[in-house]
């Protein structure tokens, strides 16, 4: 399996995921940069994502929804704050209303993704940072750790060309 670890740290308000791929960083980067590829893995297998807007530039925004098995939709947004192709990207990630506008009642994370070349290919480290331990605990109670493991576990098949 791709995902090596998923580690919550309430003391720092972070959730860290580490995964390795047998592909170079530029190929893993492409899974983030291309919204049609992103749709094939962002969201757990039973909650696929649809990106309605996607501007992959610093200051750009994304609006998306995940559709559950029962047809229900969960909306989200990103605000891209840094891009260093193919080494890292940073964005705000949060919940949104049906129009894609941020929802203040649910936590937003500052997220950083690093792509490091390793002998086997790429090690990707993602840190979701919340303002408080309570916000982290809230998203963990909603199933975020399990959700991201399932989501990121779908990347191998895309890198293999499936």
Description of the structure:
- The chain has 162 residues and is of the alpha+beta class.
- It has one domain: Alpha-D-Glucose-1,6-Bisphosphate, Chain A, domain 4 (2-Layer Sandwich).
- 22% of the residues lie in helices and 43% in strands.
- The chain contains five helices and eight strands, in the order E-E-H-H-E-E-E-E-E-E-H-H-H.
- Strands 1-2-8-7-6-5-4-3 form an eight-stranded antiparallel β-sheet.
- The mean pLDDT is 94.
Helical residue percent band: 10-25%
**Sheet having the most strands:** 8 strands, antiparallel
Give unreliable regions as ranges.
none
What is the count of β-strands?
A: 8
CATH architect. name: 2-Layer Sandwich
CATH topology: Alpha-D-Glucose-1,6-Bisphosphate, Chain A, domain 4
What's the quaternary structure here?
A: single chain
Going by helix content, strand content and strand pairing, the class is alpha+beta
Mean pLDDT: 94
Tell me the strand percentage band.
35-45%
CATH class: Alpha Beta
As for the number of domains, it is: 1
- State the separation between the terminal residues, measured CA to CA: 16 Å
Helical stretch tally: 5
Strand order of the largest sheet: 1-2-8-7-6-5-4-3
Radius of gyration: 15 Å
The succession of helices and strands, N to C, reads: EEHHEEEEEEHHH
Dominant shape? globular
What's the CATH H-level homologous superfamily?
START domain
